[in-house]
Amino acid sequence: MYVSKRKAIVLAMGMLMGTFGASAGWAAAGDCDMQSLIVQGTDRASVRDAVESLGGQVTHELGVIQALGVRLPANQQEALGSQPAVGTVFVDQQLAKSTTNDMQPASWQSVAAHAVYTQQLMGTEVTVAVLDSGQNASVVVAQISGAQDAGSYLDAISAIDWAIANKDRYDIRVLKLSFKAPPASDRGDDPLNQAVLAARKAQIEVFAAANTMGI
Asked: Residue 108 above 60 pLDDT?
């Protein structure tokens, strides 16, 4: 679900429930034997066959990183990784909201934010105008999660995929990310990072909040 204007230039990915809600990616109550995964391989059709042969199902088509989001019985993950068509299997990471409480000292000290924060100056009764992209910029909001559930890698990657696919339709040139998650991989092939790099390759400028982790 998106809020857009005629000349949408800025895409803000917030922590709101909508089209990319987390319900598809995470096991529901009573379904705890299923695991949410991100799978890359030789091609998505072959990966789909491998997943389904092990009792899994595809939940997300992640064309932006040539991967599938899948739900698979937890005891079949090792077997999936051994399939000839499967290259890399990532466990779907849960996102969390970025807040000032999570900022690392090096981040907020570099902009002297600690001086303001320690005085408890929280912006009460102050109106803020966002001018980073110009007052004439329009906004497209990709809603990926809700107040209780912060979403997952699958939700964020799906939203980035949508942004790239609709870049020309809405004239999207800026992508702003405000969430955090531990990296799904320490080998430089983290799937969320792959999606961000794909957005940059599509000539979309990507900005992350100072306290964003895992990107």
From this structure: no
